[in-house]
Here is the input.
Amino acid sequence: MLAPDVLTPDVRFEGWTTQDWIRFVRLWQPRASPDREPTRPRGGVVVIHEDGHVLKLLHTRHGRLDPHSGPPAPAEADARALALRTGQPSALGQVARAHHASWALGARLGAMDEVMERFGARARRGDDITTQALQLVTIVREMIDEGAIASWPQRLRGIPIPTAHVVRRTLDAVCPDGHALVLGLFDAEGLWVSFTARRRNGSFDVIAGPDELRPALGLLSGDWRRDYRHLARAVEDRYAPLAFGCFADVNRFRALQTDSHAGAWAQAVAVRDVIIAPMPVAVGVGLGVDAARYALKGLGVLTQRIAPLAGLAPFMDAARARMAKITGKDVGALLGFDPLAALRALLER
Here is the structure.
């Protein structure tokens, strides 16, 4: 029997106005600090090369460029070295900077055809969209290792590719069958945007925006820490019981997306800058581990600065070992990587 896909074949999108959809998409767009925002590089450059010569140069914002404008792309023999040299200027980085782009992708002539040929050879009739997407990412990662494809910068380097089974197991832990999950973000005027997904028979069959939920919210108080309950109730009345709900002020949520400090999310939940209700066990364990890392980091600083506390080092090592054991129920442990770290890597500029 085939495993269900992440999305049903007849998945329904509803409750999205143009403004709601634009808001939701922009919520996940890369961004830079305010002082860099007007001048930061934008878009990307795709370089097709052979034997060290640029054959085609394409900018995602400006279209086709003169292949001879800017430094040459690396030859095939140099592509592997390019992928392994982190923290040093690269040929692709020089191309990106020359054309004021934030990223660059280099591919040997024929590499894209090779990707599709490998994908066609490995794809099976019963593969769902999740399996196919992960298979495609795996093939691209293989060709990066072989030197046929290179990228700059390597934001997701070291993050493993989960299997389709791991993805489904993680979804089971966060949103069991017959339930829904919701992200609700508020501003001074009320509900800014929301995202609701309902899971039926192992797959999501509804992806809903806020437009059809707003009438059910009634007159809001202007305090999102109280108003979020109305959104949660509206989702349960219209779609399914909630398994996971995340509610916050939109500006605070945006700041947390790229906050790399240990314990940032745990602290935000503790002071109700973010409200998670209900909270699945896997998410609760992850927040607990985040808070424990923050506490251990602070204690580590103290033991280094205060000599009498140096004797606590063995206890700290034992605490870290214990923390490593309990992460087996954490979302990050289920996936094999920290999803928040991956999100920060994609959004930070």
